[in-house]
Amino acid sequence: MKASPKTSSFTKRLSADPAIPSVDIAKDPNTPQELLHKARRLKAGAFTWTRPEPRKEYKFLTASPRALNDLGFDEKQESESEYFRQIVSGQAIVENPYPYSQAYAGYQFGDFAGQLGDGRVVNLFEITNPKTGRRYELQLKGAGKTPFSRFADGKAVLRSSIREFIVSESLNAIGIPSTRSVALTALPKTYAQRSASEKCAIVCRMAPSWIRVGNFDLYRYRGDREGIFQLSDYVIDEVFKGESKLCAQYADIINYEPKIKALGELTKYDKMYLEIIVRNAKSVAYWQAYCFLNGVLNTDNTSVLGLAIDFGPFAFMDYFDPNYTSNHDDLMLRYSFKNMPSAIWFNMVKLGEDLAELIGAGGKYLNDPFFKEKGLKESWIDDVTKRAEGVIGAGGDIFERIYIDQYLKLVCKRLGITPRPSDHLGVVASLFETLQHTKLDYNLFFATLQQQHIKDNFNVDAVAAAFIPDTFKDDPFTDLTKENVTKQLKSFLIDFKKRIEEEKLTDENRYERAHKFNPLFVPKNWILDEVIDYTQENEYDPLYLNKLLKMSINPYDKSQWGAEAKELEKRWTSAPSSDIQMLQCSCSS
Ligand SMILES: Nc1ncnc2c1ncn2[C@@H]1O[C@H](COP(=O)(O)OP(=O)(O)OP(=O)(O)O)[C@@H](O)[C@H]1O
């Protein structure tokens, strides 16, 4: 890490908080420290200079070998280096570029919440992996108070830090777009009051960009049209690497969408908006295909890159229940499994409203000097409003098409079959009916199915039995009995057999296709709870944590899970007893 060149495109291209206009002022010992660490509302600017608050004691716990590898580092050398450990915990900072916290706003549970911002995050710098050319921005979560801390303490507790550290790396390893975690450091003498007093930690995280829909919301709230232009140009040039890359992947769907055709030529701002929509539609499909719930899909937790971001009350669902919400406080089920697509679409509409002037202008007004300098003439307003509504409406159709297309593709990949447009009525419908009625472990179901021999004279009872865990008990109060579960499974297996015969797929073909999409392990809430308890009760012994990390970053390859703690591996890959399934979490972290 020491030798890697470090930059910050964000602070280079976007405007700083006018209260601390330069790094020299931030560094000046005469500058009041409250300016860096006390809650206040910024008048303007995309960020403010700040730095991690010093803590009494730091204890390095672990680093993700996969993240280090993606940064272009030697895993072992880096994680053992003192310099690395100091940087990822905020004990030392790189003075150039100087650390900062981002300003953003957000719609939380449907209501606008005003200025939010990095209230416990300090951004460090960007590093580009010389081999892949990929750039990542590193930041520290739980690094202390910033001007965005509002009424809170700037801390993150160890419990939520372990959860975020593990799940972000797990999602990425499964193939789901996510922000990442580099390293985890405990703060043994730093406590935070949550429902009880808890010990704290710092997670060093990385992402190609940390920009959220909330960054745009803030400019709209301030009425800062120059800020919206600046942020949009930054996102196009630096996050998406130029206009030519926008909307390239789904050009066929986008260009042939009738509502898009009606808009005439698309501007770079239209394309940026649609690119963000496409990425988020795909991500929701991933979350649903793997039954992952973020739990708080507010606009401040919706990345412009469609990355899973901010891991509070998240969960991998144990069994398929469309009404499940992982968020204990989400009484209206706003962020439940079935509502995730509409929650993200709500956020895309808010982004469209933030960008209304830019996407409404179209080629007709965008290059008009009056528009650039001053804004809209009275006579243009109807035209611009109509076009902005047109872009958002077209975006809605595209969102729906891409989400459905991607969801079906992913589910079929998990089954090892080739998707057909009618699948939602056929084998996929049969699958979800079975999953919902049998309450079998969702992710384990696919991993079990890919192993089964389903041929001409297959013994359907024996195959059905392979899905039912030894621990299964008839529920005396419902019809969830072994007999009914077997019946339901057999019905699905017969439908499935018909389909694979139509496709002329052998068991081997099917396994070859499916096993790359069916993780053998996902970190469920009950496993995370066990690891958190063990780590806290055993003076930060990293045995469980590192075992969980190995399993989470190698979900398709058991051979990488290590020779240690085999009993944990066995338990963590089995279906759990019903009393620890479908756990919920609260937002406090
Ligand atoms: N303990 C805390 N101290 C200061 N600010 C906080 C704290 N917890 C949450 N916030 C702030 O409240 C807002 C919403 O919190 P949320 O839990 O969604 O974000 P977060 O987990 O802190 O950060 P991120 O989204 O970057 O993962 C954010 O502006 C966040 O910075």
Automatic annotation (TrEMBL):
It comes from Eeniella nana (Yeast). GO terms for molecular function: AMPylase activity; ATP binding; metal ion binding. Belongs to the SELO family. Keywords: ATP-binding, Magnesium, Metal-binding, Nucleotide-binding, Nucleotidyltransferase, Transferase. This is Selenoprotein O. Its cofactor is Mg(2+). It holds the Pfam family SelO. It comes from the Eukaryota. One of its GO terms (cellular component) is mitochondrion.
